[in-house]
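User: I'm preparing a small set of examples for a lab meeting where we compare how different chains pack in three dimensions. I only have the primary sequence for this one, and I'd like the structure in C-alpha cell form so I can line it up with the others. Please keep the answer compact; I'll paste it straight into my notes.
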Amino acid sequence: MEEYITQLQKSKELGLAKNIGVSNFTIDQIKKTIAILGSSDEIFTNQIEVHPYLQNAKVVDFCQANNILVSAYMPLA
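Assistant: Understood. Below is the C-alpha cell output for the 77-residue chain.
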C-alpha cells in the first residue's frame, strides 16, 4: 500500500493528478493511507457500495469525520 499511495501523492505533487481517490477502502485501510500521506485532507474520496439495502454506516461516518467524500457505488442497489 505504501508504494502505490506514495506514487499517487507524487503524481498529485507533479500536477499529473488533481486528487487522490480510493475505492472500497475499509476504515483500517483509510487509517493506513492517512498515516502514509500525513493527513486525511490528501484523500478526496472513497468509492464504496452504498444504497438503501447497504448503508455501510461505519465507513461513511469515518469518512465524513475525516472530510473524505463518499462516492456511492450502486446507489440504487
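A couple of notes for your slides: Residues 46 and 69 are 6 Å apart (CA to CA). The chain has a mean pLDDT of 96.

User: Perfect, thanks.
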